[in-house]
């Protein structure tokens, strides 16, 4: 009876449970950071990695596609971690932005976003060809997935690609997004990811909003608004270029 | 009042998403084009407007800053709801394509940075 009452209290107040849960994960992660890694790995990096690990178990246990949020007890995590709150918090980070850092932003942003979409697309497309795909539609869809896991299915649907290829393009985009979340804090010092402009270029090249949001949070939260600002244009540009210009290029090249 | 800050943030986000959706329809893609980026620019613009009739006070600011501080916890929740299982079960092609994209994109960051940056180099 006690357990049932507790379970109901937690599930009926899903988002409050999520606040508590995330606070707990963060506290444990910061404890691990200071006591087990001597501060070498940042607490937020550990918290994000723990989140991903829990998401794996959630998917494994339930077979759903929302990670931990598919377990009824943690449904609130899905709301708190959904696009609505994520974007609300991202917009809020812009409040601290200094206008002088943004003078050159338009040019840097536009070039890095277009370059980023085209670069990711062709890397994905080349790998698809190496794995034996030879029709323009499949190659384009997988290339689009290498941009983001939203560009992939949007492109695949527009070109009537097969459902397996569309699922594959989502998987490519997910791998990219998860990797960016995990490795960014470790690579940041080597690529000078420590100022507004390189953060904008990072956002434009990577493009995955979740990856960029997670990666910069674990590197230096002050960089978040700059990276997020360019990343938010990436999916739109990808959905514009992949099923049109890029598809025509691929079709011309493979036939 | 604190709620003014939250409402300001909501106003910026909704305006941005609306304009991003319009922009998407205008160029004929089924996606929001830069809505959140537009929202951020709007907030930065409003935050930097200072006249003798309009200034954002400290309480209003705290309404925005709370959500800014909630950013990392929200990102942790976001990580916990990713479809990690699908990513890993996509097979070798998905893993190799994802890994190669990330490696090469990272390598291009310093290259683009050298090409695009201004003369001054103000690190944080």
Shape of chain A: globular
| Quaternary organisation of the protein chains | heterodimer
Model regions low in confidence, pLDDT < 50 over at least 5 residues of chain B:
none
User: Distance between termini of chain A?
Assistant: 67 Å
Keyphrases for this structure?
heterodimer; A: 255 residues; mainly alpha; B: 124 residues; 2 domains; 6 helices; 0% strand
What does this protein structure show overall?
The complex is a heterodimer of chains A (255) and B (124). Chain A is mainly alpha-helical and 255 residues long. Chain A has 2 domains: 2-81, no CATH class; 102-254, no CATH class. Chain A is built from 12 helices and no strands. Chain A starts with a helix and ends with a helix. The mean pLDDT of chain A is 92. Chain B has 124 residues and is mainly alpha-helical. Chain B has 2 domains: 1-71, no CATH class; 83-118. Chain B is built from 6 helices and no strands. Chain B has helices at 2-26, 35-48, 58-69, 71-80, 84-88, 91-116. In chain B, helix 1 packs across helix 2 and helix 1 packs across helix 3. The model of chain B has no long low-confidence stretch (mean pLDDT 87). The chains are: A mainly alpha (255), B mainly alpha (124). Chains A and B meet through helix 2, helix 3, helix 4, helix 5 and helix 6 of A and helix 1, helix 2, helix 3, helix 4 and helix 5 of B.
In short:
The complex is a heterodimer of chains A (255) and B (124). Chain A has 255 residues and is mainly alpha-helical.
Compile the SSE list and pairings.
The complex is a heterodimer of chains A (255) and B (124).
Chain A: H1 2-12, H2 14-36, H3 43-62, H4 75-80, H5 83-93, H6 105-130, H7 136-147, H8 151-158, H9 163-187, H10 196-206, H11 209-219, H12 224-254
Helix pairs in contact in A: 2-3, 3-9, 3-11, 6-7, 6-10, 6-12, 7-8, 7-9, 7-12, 8-9, 8-12, 9-11, 10-11, 10-12, 11-12
Chain B: H1 2-26, H2 35-48, H3 58-69, H4 71-80, H5 84-88, H6 91-116
